[in-house]
From TrEMBL:
This is Cof-like hydrolase. GO terms for cellular component: cytosol. It comes from Mediterraneibacter gnavus (strain CC55_001C). PANTHER family: 5-AMINO-6-(5-PHOSPHO-D-RIBITYLAMINO)URACIL PHOSPHATASE YCSE, PHOSPHOSERINE PHOSPHATASE. GO terms for molecular function: magnesium ion binding; phosphatase activity. It holds the Pfam family Hydrolase_3.
Amino acid sequence: MIKVIASDMDGTLLGNDHKVAPETLKAIHEACDAGIRFMIATGRNFKGAMEELKETDIVCDYIVGSGAEVRDQKQQIVSTAPLSMELCEEIYENLKEFPVSIIFSSGDYDYRIGTKKEIEESFLKQIQLFHMDTGQDTDESAVLSSPLYRRIVENTKIISEFQELEESQVSVYKVFLYSNDLEMLEKISKKLEKNKKLAVASSFKTNLEITAVEAQKGPVLKQYIESLGYTMDEVMVLGDSLNDYSMLSMDFGATVAMENAMPQVKTVSKYITKSNEEFGVAYAIYGVLAQIRKENAGWMSEA
């Protein structure tokens, strides 16, 4: 029987407007009322996750930074798996030859290194990604005047060289890259994947996300749920992108890909639900609740 539900956010729990739909929120509450523990498993940092959840009344655990940080239902930090500063420097040195802004993400701020042009391009690309399929205008002038652009700028510290990051003594949970040059991103991915201390994934085809190999959603979720007394077969996980692959490819009780998921993700998942725009998370939750009611009814009749 499913006792824990862990859901990705962007492209999964959230619609294309990056909000939790009332239909999805209702399903989550019904699951919690039935005794199911709800968890978030996202590539966002905690601050970024809370920007979209603060207007909801969801009580949940948080696996953020793709597993680099775990917080309990009281939002207290349980564990962290940051990139060491030595690994950050190694990533930086490997990427210096490529014309792309490097984003070092901590729990509070993003630290961006690059030329003015590279940083502006990364801002624009990040915003355009988060406006995908919403029908909103994504030309440069519209992006620059958007509230999301201002929020990202406010949460960013621009630095000129790696030494400034080193001196800041922040814990870096993830490194992000955004670019339209897919061939370049592929070269970068292959180069970094040679380092077995790193995990390289993506949420979109135009980005890369680099974490410590220990910071992957699947293994971190397994460790956390077992520390709470649950077993893998009691967990349902939902996701849509390659940073969900480690979670969906593991033998949890139910691994559910969204209809809008990347093909590689669908291939390894046991089930496919409706898309994020069709409230696929709610659809999957109601399937679990129906199964619980069926099992309870069977037990009652046998008694």
